[in-house]
Amino acid sequence: MTIGYFNGEFISVEQLVIPIDERGHQFGDGVYEVIRVYDGKFFMLEEHIERLFKSAQAIRLQGDQSIEEIRQLIHEAVEKSGLADCDVYIQITRGVATRKHLFPDVPVSVSMTIRPMKPTSDTVREKGMKAIFHEDERWANCYIKSLNLLPNILAKQTAQDAGCYEAILVKDGFVTEGTSSNVYIVSDKTIYTTPLSKHILAGITRMAVKELANGLGVPFVEKQFTTEELMQADEVFITSTTNEVMPIVNVDGKNIKDGSAGEMTLKLNAKLMELVKSVQHT
Ligand SMILES: Cc1ncc(COP(=O)(O)O)c(C=O)c1O
């Protein structure tokens, strides 16, 4: 079942637990991760925990919890939920203190939700998704998985209002990433994606897809591309922990090639699912 956790207590997600002075609530002063569990097994858990600690370090957030303790906590939460296929959202914030901008001398807050996650049906994936281009209005440190998601939320809602699934963010004419995904194009049997920098999140699925492309002998080029290059590409896809590898078949009302999901895209997703199934650790 769906369960929550806040500062030492497992709770129902409906329970009212966030103190009014919680800095996550007041300022968005914290970081988070999303981790997927397939058939009772975590997928790339260590990579997610490592990114969580890097994000925390980047905002000078220092909790008493060690990596080992956080790992244990996540394991305990999933075990308690009894869910075999779920996603784990974990947030660490700068704690509860009277509202002042300066760092308080209080313990960090740790919260989690564990919810069932149904696999995306093959029919939905094979049809692909529509997207829009949207100005990247975020800050200069998007490599931090921060709780501050207002520009992402506004862009995603704009996409939804236009009957689309994702907003592809654009800075100075170049694609950065999606509101909650990394973005790729396939041209001449080569995969292109935006290079890692402070302007995008280093996706864990991106890391997996890079390895899978290498395994398939498909060139994986980390290079900026423009909106025009994206529209001319043979295939476009996005990746994320929750979406896996998802085809984008139409952007701003115009089809990518014939508007069907790309062959390479679907192959990469199939390979990702093989990798998921081959993961041994629980
Ligand atoms: C802005 C952004 N970029 C990329 C990603 C993809 O990251 P991952 O593959 O680790 O889920 C996400 C995931 O939520 C995201 O929010």
UniProtKB/TrEMBL annotation:
InterPro entries: Aminotrans_IV, Aminotrans_IV_CS, Aminotransferase-like, BCAT-like_C, BCAT-like_N, Class-IV_PLP-Dep_Aminotrnsfr, D_amino_transT. It catalyses: D-alanine + 2-oxoglutarate = D-glutamate + pyruvate. Signal peptide: none annotated. Keywords: Aminotransferase, Pyridoxal phosphate, Transferase. The keyword Transferase applies. Its cofactor is pyridoxal 5'-phosphate. Its EC number is 2.6.1.21. It is an enzyme of class 2 (transferase). One of its GO terms (molecular function) is D-alanine-2-oxoglutarate aminotransferase activity. This is D-alanine aminotransferase. It comes from Sporosarcina psychrophila (Bacillus psychrophilus).
